Amino acid sequence: MGNGVKESAVRVREDAEAVLPSPVNSKSDHRQVLSSLLSGALAGALAKTAVAPLDRTKIIFQVSSKRFSAKEAFRLLYFTYLNEGFLSLWRGNSATMVRVVPYAAIQFSAHEEYKRILGHYYGFPGALPPWPRLLAGALAGTTAASLTYPLDLVRARMAVTPKEMYSNIFHVFIRISREEGLKTLYHGFTPTVLGVIPYAGLSFFTYETLKSLHRGKETEPYPLERMIFGACAGLIGQSASYPLDVVRRRMQTAGVTGHPHASIAHTLRAIVREEGAVRGLYKGLSMNWLKGPIAVGISFTTFDLMQILLRHLQS
User: Fold this and answer.
1) What is the pLDDT of residues 11-48, one digit of tens each?
2) Where are the Solcar repeats (predicted)?
3) Closest CA to 256 of 168, 120, 160, 141
4) pLDDT on residue 285
5) 180-211: b or e for each residue (b if 16 or more CB lie within 10 Å)?
6) CA–CA separation, 239 vs 152, rounded Å?
7) Are 227 and 298 in contact (CB under 8 A)?
8) Which residues contact 299 (CB under 8 A, 6 or more apart)?
9) Count of CB atoms within 10 A of residue 251's CB?
10) CA-CA distance, 261 to 76, in Å (whole number)?
11) pLDDT top residue among 287 and 11
12) How many CB atoms lie within 10 A of CB 133?
């Protein structure tokens, strides 16, 4: 009788230990999340700083009715440098960093978590199959965009306005809240999410797919190969979501560019009516093909190499 009770107690304790996470595993999970957050933050900061002048130029064309061409874009860069100085090419980059660092940290960390959750759900402990791989990227991008959107709007405002209008990031928040209302901080959020789903989904999907194909060689990709994989991912992701990016920028900067605050459909129709479908909705895409692959390549490569470095340091 006593032995039976003892055996039952032992079985209950063993079952509980199997269900409950051990302190060691919990500690390891926390360390992994922190590692992903740190690697993602650094990846985003390096990537966006590298292409900030091109990004600012692209936004200026997106929110205006000027016709885009590579010649006009580089002329704008040159005249900005002459009139406002070299560092003015990075105007709004501080706001970009305030947004990009948490955005990239959340996106990469969320992607690792979604990969783990979906892998456990579908029974794939290693590389995910195509559809869950696409879903993990889309969910990661949506999570990051939802949590950091007001910072993206502030960055867009700073990029298209003169220094005199907004002195710093906090000034943008204060003026928008006072003059246009707090809800303006989420103006353009819907096209952002609609654009992020294909962009993040296809970017992570392409990069992870190319890496999994490379694993057949039984060697880790070299940094240059990772850059090429990331560049391909950026090219595909940004091309698929670009029209919604144009609509988003128009909606974000409506209060300072003379365009009325309007819905996605109204903004889309206005762009097509005034500038044409291809010329209006794909304005600046050629510049995105230059800066996008560079930025995404740097971002994915930095994240992977930082993860490898941190794993070595921990071991």
Assistant:
1) 444 444 443 444 445 667 788 899 999 999 999 999 99
2) 31-117, 128-213, 221-309
3) 160
4) 82
5) eeeebbebbbebbbbbbbbbbbbbbbbbbbbb
6) 20
7) yes
8) 43, 44, 46, 47, 104, 230
9) 26
10) 27
11) 287
12) 24
Only one residue has tokens 């943008």, namely: 172
Compute the distance between CA of residue 38 and CA of residue 23 in angstroms, rounded to an integer: 22
Task: Provide the 3-class DSSP secondary structure of residue 215.
Answer: helix
| Alpha-carbon distances of 4 from 1, 9, 13, 70, rounded to whole Å | 5, 9, 14, 82
171: confidence class by pLDDT, cuts 50, 70, 90: confident
* 115 confidence band (pLDDT: 50, 70, 90): very high
Q: Which two structure tokens, joined as six digits, stand for 265?
A: 């459909």
> H helices within the chain, ranges in order?
2-19, 23-62, 70-84, 93-122, 130-160, 169-179, 189-214, 223-252, 254-257, 264-275, 277-281, 285-314
Tokens 């993602």, residue located: 40
Average pLDDT over residues 120-128: 79
Q: Which amino acid is at 14?
A: E
- Minimal CA–CA distance to 304: which of 232, 222, 239? 222
**Distance of CA 249 to CAs 26, 58, 143, 157, 233, Å?**
42, 10, 20, 9, 22
Encoded tokens for 191: 């096209």
Quote the CA–CA distance of 45 and 37 in Å, as a whole number.
Answer: 12
* Beta carbons of 249 and 59 less than 8 angstroms apart: yes
* pTM, 2 dp: 0.76
By CB neighbour count within 10 A (0-12 exposed, 13-18 middle, 19+ buried), where does 265 fall? exposed
